[in-house]
Amino acid sequence: MTERVAERLRQVAREMCVRRFALIAALLALPALAPADSLAQTPRDQLLPLLQGIEDVPSQALLDDTISTDAGPTLRLIAADTTAPAEARLRAFVALADYPGGATLTFLAAQVTQYSQAKAGEQTLYLRAAARSLAVVGGSATVDQLASLLDHSVADVRADAALALAATGAMTALPPLRSHLLRETNDLVHLALVEAIRELTHT
């Protein structure tokens, strides 16, 4: 091997080293990539863990921050999803009280109608949670629908309906509350009716 060839080979080797170091430096300068699982997560996937395994319903701020946007649409999706865990659905219904607006109002009213004939189990829990959130979101516009639940066969539903009517803050809720108070035989519901009337009349 001549000296010229040897020098050329050394030059090529040096150039390869320079390129390699430049490539390494460029790679190190790139922002860290999120794990594949994180990239694949939908807003639903991100919110589900927050709606399970904790004592309290997550705050609106936490829910919105988790998916970096208004969590209302995703909460409605989870609440209506029959494949989602019951605990997550229930907390989604409760959390929707913090997301007023036409879409939430329409959704909750439809869910109350859907579960209005529930007699036991998880469906009565969904009905009660949806009714309470509906009262907060819809106010006086929801009185008639909520008042119809005062005739429900399940005492817990009737009690929550009474409290939901109080949550509307509407004086139009007083006539059905007083009417049912006169004929309610369940002690729990009777107390709820009294409390609802007291809250509305501030007595």
Walk me through what this model shows.
By secondary structure, this protein is mostly helical. Helix content is 69%, strand content 0%. It has helices at residues 3-29, 36-40, 43-47, 60-67, 72-80, 86-95, 102-115, 122-138, 143-148, 155-168, 174-183, 187-201.
Mind sketching the topology for me?
Elements: H1 3-29, H2 36-40, H3 43-47, H4 60-67, H5 72-80, H6 86-95, H7 102-115, H8 122-138, H9 143-148, H10 155-168, H11 174-183, H12 187-201
Helix pairs in contact: 5-6, 5-7, 6-8, 7-8, 8-10, 10-12, 11-12
Task: Give me some keywords for this one.
single chain; 203 residues; mainly alpha; Leucine-rich Repeat Variant; 3 domains; 0% strand; elongated
**Contiguous runs where pLDDT drops below 50 for at least 5 residues:** 20-27
Percentage of residues in DSSP E strands = under 5%
The secondary-structure class comes to: mainly alpha
The beta-strand count equals: 0
Give the CA-based shape: elongated
What's the domain count? 3
Question: What name is given to the CATH topology of the largest domain?
Answer: Leucine-rich Repeat Variant
**Kindly, what is the distance between the CA atoms of the first and last residues, rounded to a whole number of angstroms?**
107 Å
Mean pLDDT level: 87
Text of the CATH class of the largest domain = Mainly Alpha
Helicity level, as a percent range? 55-70%
Radius of gyration: 29 Å
- What composes the largest sheet? none
Helices and strands, in N-to-C order? HHHHHHHHHHHH
CATH architecture of the largest domain: Alpha Horseshoe
Discrete helix count: 12
